[in-house]
């Protein structure tokens, strides 16, 4: 289990609302989960209509079709929902940040590598042999492993890798829920499409490795919890499947800490009651667990019996896509500011094109060297994810906002108010021109997909050349933050 996952979703991905990961998003619940949920009391499922269109947009029409057929099958039968056995795939990127750093710098391969500031965010498997783990203070890590290489990290690069991997997951699963370095994929109803699931997931792993050089560990199970747990037993670069009938035997002797939702505090309480394994936890009634841990107690009661009905929540339309950075040196140079803004706008627009969405609102925020921050947002006439359209507005905002005679420390752009992009959205009066521009940017995206974002630079962003370090993923920004 990687550090970054726990950082992204404290308390376990099951309960945590989607936190940082790619974006905060408006969840769309899958129809395929509705039948399972229908067994539970509470409000019915929703949002079925949005999903097939989304899957078709991503080119995932086939798995989506299978899921639709499965959902339709469940809906038949006198209105009594028949729950199809669920099949969940958990994909976890191995030693995520550290693995990317080792790939970027061959000198780091085979060496203990830590990414983090203050505490370990991620560490390589070589570092883990010294007892290092995510969340450990760097001071302790240095003591345990003085030869470890400690890096600040390159969040924006990690995001690019994660998005490339998740895009490949979407090709095999009609619904996926992503976190910083892990994804839950609902494969329910796709068995006939994929045939041998193990082979299909094996092919996904090969695809990920070929495209990114990274390894992922995959677990397949009848629910999220079991899929993740079985994956943990074969890390790194593993692939394992657990069937529902084997869940009991698999769970009974596992330490309680491995159960989703059992953190240090819960484990201490349970161990003080002489409960050490998942099987032993079953001795406690639902009422007792609820008294001990509130609503989480009820979940633990179910989970220690191998039950987890949490659905996969697609998080398709983000609330915002942000790209921001600090300058390597505070600057009052207009050319540098505008160059950086153009670069950030280009990255944010590309991210929204990849998701097939177009923002209506553009915000620019500035951080001055003396700590003061200003920001302002404005809407486009029509939603657009085409760089020049967004940039025009962003530059106007920068012009309005940068009024003080103080150097800038940081700069960022945030896109929001997304709508699904149907073709391109230029002005109504220059549709043909807008279409041409959209085709051009799609071609750019194709080239960047193949050769890295850094191979194409345009306009003002060219002024950054020579001022900033670069790699295949683009300029190496100083403190790129994750998308908010
Ligand atoms: Mg991981």
Biggest sheet: strand arrangement: 6-7-2-8-9
CATH class of the largest domain: Alpha Beta
Q: How is the biggest beta sheet arranged?
A: 5 strands, mixed
Ligands present = magnesium ion
* Rg of Cα set: 24 Å
The CATH architecture term of the largest domain is 2-Layer Sandwich
Runs in which pLDDT lies below 50 for 5 or more consecutive residues are 1-81, 423-430, 479-484
| Total count of domains | 2
Give the name of the CATH superfamily of the largest domain: Reverse transcriptase/Diguanylate cyclase domain
Helical content class: 25-40%
Structural class: alpha+beta
Distance between the termini: 23 Å
Write down the overall geometry: globular
CATH fold field value of the largest domain: Alpha-Beta Plaits
TL;DR?
The chain is an alpha+beta fold. Helix content is 40%, strand content 18%.
Task: Explain the overall architecture.
The structure is a single chain. With 484 residues, the protein is of the alpha+beta class. The protein folds into 2 domains: 3-94 and 158-314, Alpha-Beta Plaits, CATH 3.30.70.270; 319-475, DNA polymerase, Y-family, little finger domain (Dna Ligase, domain 1, 2-Layer Sandwich), CATH 3.30.1490.100. 40% of the residues lie in helices and 18% in strands. It is built from 19 helices and 18 strands. It has helices at residues 3-8, 34-37, 50-57, 61-75, 96-104, 125-128, 138-144, 155-172, 191-194, 197-212, 224-232, 247-252, 264-272, 278-281, 286-293, 295-303, 334-354, 387-401, 431-451, and strands at 25-29, 88-93, 113-115, 122-123, 149-151, 175-178, 182-186, 216-221, 239-241, 313-318, 320-331, 357-358, 361-368, 373-379, 408-416, 419-420, 470-471, 474-475. A 5-stranded mixed sheet has the order 6-7-2-8-9. Strand 13 and strand 14 form a beta hairpin. Helix 15 crosses helix 16 and helix 17 crosses helix 18 (387-401). The longest helix is centred in the C-terminal third of the chain and has 21 residues, at 334-354. It is globular and about 65 Å long. Residues 1-81, 423-430 and 479-484 have low confidence and may be disordered. Bound molecules: magnesium ion.
